[in-house]
Amino acid sequence: MSRTVTRLRDGWKFTRTDNPAHPNPDFDDSAWTSVRVPHDWAIAGPFDREHDRMTQARKQADVEAGVQEITGRTGGLPHVGVGWYRLRFNVPAEAAGKQFRLEVDGSMSNCTVYCNGTHVGGWPCGYTSFALDLTSVVQLGRENVLAVRLENLPESSRWYPGAGLYRNVRLVVLHPVHVAHWGTYLTTPTLTDKEGTVSLETTIRNAGPETAVTLRTAIHDRNGTMVCMEETTRSLSGVETIRQDFIVPDPQRWDPEAPNLYTAVSTVRVAGETVDRYETPFGFRSLDFDPDKGFFINGRSLKLKGVCMHHDLGPLGAAVNVAALRRQLHMLQDMGCNAIRTSHNPPTPELLDLCDRMGLLVIDEAFDEWALPKMTNGYNLLFQDWAEKDLRAMIKRDRNHPCLILWSIGNEIPEQNSPQGADVAQFLCDICKDEDPTRLTTAGFNQADGAIRNGLAAAVDVPGWNYKANCYVEFHTLFPDKPTYGSETESTYSSRGEYFFPANEEIGPFRVPHHVSSYDNEFPNWGYSPDVEFRAQDECPFSLGAFVWTGFDYLGEPTPFSEAWPSRSSYFGIIDLAGLPKDRYFLYQSTWSQTPVLHLLPHWTWPGREGETTPVHCYTNFSSAELFVNGVSQGRRRKSVKMVTGAYRLVWPGVRYQPGELKVVAYDRDGAVAAETVIRTAGEAAAVELLPDRQAMAADGDGMIFITAQIVDKDGNPCPRADHGLSVEIEGPGTLEGLCNGDPTSLESFKGSRMRAFNGKCVLYLGSVDGRPGDIRVTVSADGLRSGQISLESR
Ligand code: GAL
Q: Is pLDDT above 70 for 28?
């Protein structure tokens, strides 16, 4: 019998009260709330400006000095404080002699775990995965009780951290002889078209007396065919590492264009009996970071077209859901994105599994803070005692993933300006090399002068530059032996479907109702528009590429309205919090991908603006296009490298608004019509239209369908400003897991069944029920409108 892995998903009890009696096995938790894990205790709200309210000294030169009150920085959600979870689980008497291990992928935060009343361990950092040995406390043939205490401190995060057991938890039952936790380390030292070599170190733990152990490792290709095999027998006690080497003929490369995965299948035998089986997916690929020529994968030059991503999933909060993660990654990939920076913490392990399978490259980032604080109760409180443990845990867990290209030891750490900066960086880089000498290290620097002066930038293999598009040449000259890239760029912000005039007006901090223009020309004083970064990358062939801040909107950090409640989530995303693309999505898609793009903005429903100047922008990868208002040509525009903006988008600045039809026609090189896009002035809102992203989902309790509810007029034209209150009704085996309209100022709960449309749209996150397949009918109604109704399937 090999190991059994049980996801501890259902049956948890939860409370926000704190009591030292909670771990007692006979404590009565019947009044606690029943929850499933992953669970985020704060995401249902209510939103409140008092939650984790902070003050800070004003820094900007352009506003009066004094104290600044920051309201929505961590999302305005009730994540601060204590939460307890309890779970009863049975262990059969036949499990006598087994080892019991609890695996936690992440728990926010300051986790303490008890089993049957005994303290068994914990982990303070909420983003780190860890395992606890329960063997000595588990009771056979009866009910056992797990109790978990978590506590989020105020002023500990710069964004919404989530709260609770927000990632997966598993119980693993093992034979005394087994592959240890994160017990394989696999590298591919040499790679040619003819053969790839594999070096595998497998750590075996024997919790019993010394015995002869046979480790058999078979390498399987993506079809499951065994391509080579090694067997090693050794007398073994305690914890020992066995090294095996393999030669794989005709290795199929892992590549963003064809993410071929192999699997090393380890089986452990004792006295002829198979006692454990463990799989390590991996890939063959070569990575080159050339200081003069940029990034290469498998010998092919590739610009990193990356985005930074925080970990929350909008209306699901931090609670991990694979379907929601997959949807995010697909949207990014369709945009032409090929890389993710997991700003500023280790991600959930499922993200890396998905990136392995989908062919996205990843920078795993460990820290946003070292010993010097950004936040009063931030990671600085833990750095001294935990940095090494957290960093080793991240690398041990993640180093076999082919998608991973760099280890980032930090983002904008305040040590950039302290004399110890270089020493701390060296300490962290040494840990990276110790755990994984095959990958290079990086960090993101915003204080370039400081990090260069104190040697911090020189301490990492690949210095990353945050918001320095105009300095890449300078850095390249300064560090001729090191690659150059934009670890964090742009920070352009926008609210989906909001446009302000004049179109080139810069945002003032007091704009009401706290929205940012979707002309994509507003950014904080450290940021710039996408066009500037595109230009820098085009002019710097030596640059590896860049990582936009951010792919999706996230909860918290509502810059530029950090002082302006009810703003409570970011405006930086290329895609909004609901998962709806903003205009900017098409600007990236037109620049990064081969997909033909011909996207117009703004919308064309402006009652009261008749005759007024309403600039029209077109995001396109066609080189020229002509714009028409009600059939009247507004002129032809051609992309021009001479202009920064005009090089990446076409602009008609002087168009006068008239209701009717706005049409753009793109021409090919021979002047023939290649494509056209039309938007029409919408009439009165008449109906709700439902657009699901798929027809069916898995009836496993994890499957999801994402349905966009859109308000349209009687002819089906989207009503771009509609804000009707929508009510959702679900019949059949489906659950409404979240509602989100993408409005960063909305204080309606994500977990209710009603929400207003924001600029004509709202997204329903429909979940499945485990073990209950069947048809689901979804109805969305609004006063005065024809309801939208669709039938979907859970199977
Ligand atoms: C950067 C920082 C990010 C985010 C961003 C907003 O300086 O690294 O975490 O705060 O600014 O523009």
A: yes
